[in-house]
UniProtKB/TrEMBL annotation:
Pfam families: Polysacc_synt_3
Localisation per UniProt entry: Cell membrane
Spans through the membrane: 91-114, 120-140, 152-173, 236-255, 300-321, 327-343, 364-381, 387-407
Species of origin: Nostoc cf. edaphicum LEGE 07299
Keywords from the UniProt entry: Cell membrane, Membrane, Transmembrane, Transmembrane helix
Membrane-related topology note: Multi-pass membrane protein
Official protein name in the record: Lipopolysaccharide biosynthesis protein
């Protein structure tokens, strides 16, 4: 009876985490809707293209910071090693983020040359300032996730989202163009510092320490590789369209992506973000581990399928009303891209499953294969325009991701005992 109650409590915690993260995302979407409507009226496709270039460059660099896998190691670490790993992770974060600040600034000129547009140089450098703030709260954020207190993470997301959207609208109304998007992201990042430090007592020691750095790096490198490939795929269509079809076409595609798939992906990320610590906490109990995974798949289906299908079917009605007639040409692209979200949560769930049992290298191998297929498909499709790029995105996801999800699930769950899940 006690074990049953404990399971119910943990399961309820998972649902509460999804609720908190989902609530934060709802706040984000409500405020972001107002921002998107405002920007769609004040900015033209060329402005959107410039924003896409700046944010795409920043997204690639971000992979090497908070998404580098160092935080994931803190979540997964054994309790006896936690203190050492936290201090080492803190030091590694400062080195990594400092290097990425320099590299992004250095990359600004080549990016400008690639797109033949010098207007993006300074915004790319300004965006890099965020990296110098991340190490201050990264360890605390990971520890909060480890403790399944995603209410704090949700509070950070919601607070920053509200501030970003209010500032973006204000700056856009003042005619700041792409700077209306860049400046708010930088000046609201300290929200994470304040909230995380207020809600977790961990503080670094005064000396730099690299004990167990090999263990941290060994675990993180596969996750880093996967995150980098994910980020490449998430932005590859932007890069190809911007390079071969121009900034104007990129602006239309970028609008369609964010007005469509952006909503679904935020919901998906909310659920998979909550799943990883949920699975890690059950690795010592095979039955509970499996129950948690299959339960999460049911949750994914119940939430994502209705959301995606509803949004896709209503796009022809709400886009001209909410965003204006000038974006009507983006509707077919929006619908196709939005449908590509259907298999994504199950593939993300399978990735979390592999990571939780120290099989992240398999996840990396799969992502290398999928990224190769995805790249070839986009390069072929771009010859016929942005709509067919969207079709290529849809078809590669519908055909490849279900196969990976099924195989990875069977591989882990049929070999749970032999994989020696750590207690």
């Amino acid at each position: 009876m006690l074990i049953k109650k404990l399971r119910q409590k943990v399961s309820s915690q998972y649902l509460r985490n999804i609720g908190w993260m989902g609530g934060a995302e709802l706040v984000n979407r409500v405020f972001r809707l107002g921002t998107t409507v405002t920007l769609s009226q004040l900015l033209n496709p060329y402005d959107y293209g410039l924003i896409a270039i700046v944010l795409t460059t920043n997204e690639f660099a971000t992979v090497f910071t908070l998404r580098a896998g160092i935080g994931s190691k803190i979540v997964q670490a054994a309790e006896k090693d936690l203190k050492i790993i936290c201090q080492t992770s803190y030091c590694l974060n400062w080195i990594l983020c400092g290097v990425m600040f320099i590299l992004q600034c250095l990359a600004a000129l080549p990016v400008a040359l690639f797109y033949s547009n010098n207007q993006v140089i300074l915004p790319i450098c300004v965006m890099a300032l965020v990296y110098l703030m991340l190490p201050i709260f990264a360890v605390q954020s990971a520890l909060i996730q480890r403790e399944n207190r995603l209410k704090i993470t949700a509070l950070c997301n919601a607070t920053q989202s509200i501030l970003i959207n209010i500032l973006t609208i204000a700056l856009a109304l003042l005619g700041m163009g792409m700077w209306a998007v860049v400046i708010p992201i930088v000046i609201t990042t300290p929200v994470w510092i304040v909230i995380n430090l207020m809600n977790h007592p961990w503080r670094p020691t005064m000396s730099f320490s690299f004990n167990k750095w090999q263990e941290v790096v060994s675990y993180a490198r596969n996750i880093l590789g996967v995150e980098l490939l994910n980020k490449l795929r998430a932005n590859l269509d932007y890069l190809i369209i911007g390079r071969f079809l121009g900034v104007q076409a990129l602006g239309i595609y970028y609008f369609a992506f964010n007005a469509g798939l952006g909503i679904s992906m935020n919901v998906i990320n909310t659920m998979t973000w909550s799943l990883y610590p949920h699975l890690c906490a059950a690795r010592g109990n095979v039955k509970q581990f499996q129950e948690r995974y299959f339960s999460s798949l049911k949750t994914f289906a119940l939430i994502v399928f209705p959301l995606v299908l509803l949004q896709s079917s209503l796009a022809p009605f709400y886009v001209p009303i909410v965003f204006g007639q000038k974006w009507v040409t983006a509707i077919p692209i929006l619908i196709v891209i939005c449908l590509s979200a259907l298999p994504r949560p199950f593939a993300d769930g399978a990735s979390m499953l592999l990571n939780s049992v120290d099989k992240s290298h398999i996840n990396l191998y799969w992502n290398l294969i999928f990224t190769t297929i995805f790249t070839i498909s986009l390069l072929v499709a771009v010859k016929w325009g942005i709509f067919w790029v969207a079709v290529a995105v849809l078809m590669t996801h519908l055909l490849a991701l279900p196969l990976y999800s099924i195989w990875a699930s069977k591989y882990v769950l049929s070999r749970t005992q032999s994989l020696s899940i750590a207690k």
